[in-house]
């Protein structure tokens, strides 16, 4: 399986940064292959969701070629330039798709996507996710030259007419409470809603759960709407008590509208199935690798029912599909408008096949 046309995906616990021996062993076993991976809030293999250890998939292509690019992200302000640099490193007329993995705490996912989109043509499919760290929000890593490294993003490009890429991204959360104007924000930091401190207002909705922020915020994401289009969902990464602000995984546009969301078990599972339907519609019928990137908030809410959503995707995907993936701090996928965006609280699927 080791070759210049092989892609190795590895998803594991954030604590592997302290003991990277398993990752080094994997890299040594596939010296010619392109190896990418990141830390998670849970690994997916087939329908199974687990913590600890590694989830690994190896895909060897017959005709498609692959290439990797990496870029540092020391803070949110580096996100656009990181996306731009990786896209420039992968750009080629034969490029068909890019799969991205980014550190999950220091990044502004919206800016990262803008950097990628500013270079890549519209027809190149961009998908991926932000690394996770359970509900700890302490540190995340991305593989760089086989080593779990903090503060980085990586991307792999897939080239040639033989590659077929499917994608789907669906949520399933319900909106509740009043719609509020975003009166003060800066990139992905929210300061005020309706002229009031955002954090204090948010805590008033959470009640006793407020003491568990930012982790408990995963259960109540924010729907953000600008204009007449569909809202995007944003998840909290951190809070600042002194500034009474909340930092989200992606942009919170000033002047837009924000509204809280709450999970519905059946609708979340149905959303995972809908994401698989979108992928299946783009499949070519050959051997298929499905990369599932689902939000940690979904895992916390579904809890013991979590494998219902991973089973729902495999029920719809082409027979014999192999599924691997992870629970994330954000998902990257084209939305309803057709261009890539950062999503939160979705099940996002990318399918790879050749033929």
How would you characterize the overall build of this protein?
The protein has 355 residues and is an alpha+beta fold. It has two domains: 6-170 and 266-354, no CATH class; 174-262, no CATH class. The chain has seven helices and 26 strands. The chain has helices at 21-29, 79-90, 109-117, 198-206, 265-280, 296-302, 307-316, and strands at 6-12, 34-39, 43-45, 48-50, 54-60, 65-72, 95-102, 125-130, 142-144, 147-149, 152-159, 163-170, 174-175, 180-186, 189-193, 196-197, 222-225, 232-234, 236-240, 245-248, 257-262, 289-295, 322-328, 330-334, 340-343, 347-354. Strands 13, 14, 15, 16, 17, 18, 19, 20 and 21 form a nine-stranded antiparallel sheet that branches. Strands 4-3-23-22-26-12 form a six-stranded mixed sheet. A hairpin with a 2-residue loop joins strand 14 and strand 15 (189-193). Helix 5 packs parallel to helix 7. The radius of gyration is 19 Å and the shape is globular. The model has no long low-confidence stretch (mean pLDDT 94).
Structure described in brief:
With 355 residues, the protein is of the alpha+beta class. It has helices at 21-29, 79-90, 109-117, 198-206, 265-280, 296-302, 307-316, and strands at residues 6-12, 34-39, 43-45, 48-50, 54-60, 65-72, 95-102, 125-130, 142-144, 147-149, 152-159, 163-170, 174-175, 180-186, 189-193, 196-197, 222-225, 232-234, 236-240, 245-248, 257-262, 289-295, 322-328, 330-334, 340-343, 347-354.
